[in-house]
Amino acid sequence: MKPAVFEYYDPTTLSEAMALLSRLGEDARVLAGGQSLVPLMNFRLARPAHLVDLNRIAELDFVSVQGGELRIGAMTRQRALERSDEAAAGWPLLREAAGFIGHVQIRNRGTVGGSLAHAYPSAELPVAMVTLGAGLVLQREDGEHTVAADEFFLGTMTTVLEPGELLREVRVPAVPPGSGASFKEVSRRYGDFALAGAAALVTLGRDGAVASARLTLTGSAPIRAHAAEGALLGEKPSEALFREAARRAVDGIEQDSDMHATAEYRRRACEALARRALAEAAQRAAASPDAG
User: Fold this and answer.
1) Nearest CA to 46 among 37, 33, 54, 59?
2) Average pLDDT, 10 consecutive residues per value, the chain (292 residues)
């Protein structure tokens, strides 16, 4: 298992990397943590003619809070996000989701930007970012633009990223007061790819009813469960409410079958996980210091 021949570049600044990507075009791939791309190259499922390594670009590695939002550089290691005090304090869903990614050794090398750009169907961070309403900053040599997370993912390992473009940064808005979040997934063994997953963010009003809710499921791309979210608004949390919302969440959604699980299994698993995630998110919202 050896990759096809390629040319290797290791820029030390973002501007240098962008100039390379602009010049090399469609024949270039970006190397972040390498946890996804390198195996594909070894199996020759990916054959980039040029590999641009971002690991020496220090300006892409950071986690900070600015203007009330969490900002995460694309080269931030998943383990750094998992252990971030800033994320734990204001965005605990990210810390919880990151803890499900592979094993610690994987998270020590894997990057936040790499996971999002790779867009693997069962990946945890895409689901969490969609649930939190994150914005993804895409950089080109001549400028930048921001894409909402729920518009970034198009399908299995497919995003809106274009040749010469790089995911530079993730910006996660502040979570509303009185909110709780939860991430749930099921896999064959600890550290395996998830067979199904769900993330929920629930905000309760002063009357104890659901003021806002976001629910996202795993699929070929993260699936926002708009029908389920709408069914929750204005209602008091209950087992019956969350059961009905979870049923609506999977009604008519498409899932894939493979050697590990059938599409029907994944739908039913997503339904069960959605119910549990909603219940736990609501429970955490009720227990939060900002709860009415």
Assistant:
1) 37
2) 92 98 95 93 94 98 97 98 97 97 96 97 97 98 96 97 96 97 96 96 97 97 98 98 98 93 97 98 93 68
Cβ pair 209, 219 in contact under 8 A: no
pTM value is 0.96
Least Cα distance to 279 among 241, 250, 223 occurs for: 241
Write the CB contacts of 102 (distance below 8 Å, at least 6 apart in sequence).
35, 110, 191
Structure token pair of residue 54: 């971002």
Q: Which helix (H) or strand (E) holds 270?
A: helix 263-287
Instruction: Give the rounded distance of the alpha carbon of 85 from its chain centre.
Output: 19
Lateral strand order in the sheet of 28-31: 7-9, 50-53, 28-31
Spatial distance between the Cα atoms of 93 and 84, rounded to a whole number of angstroms: 12
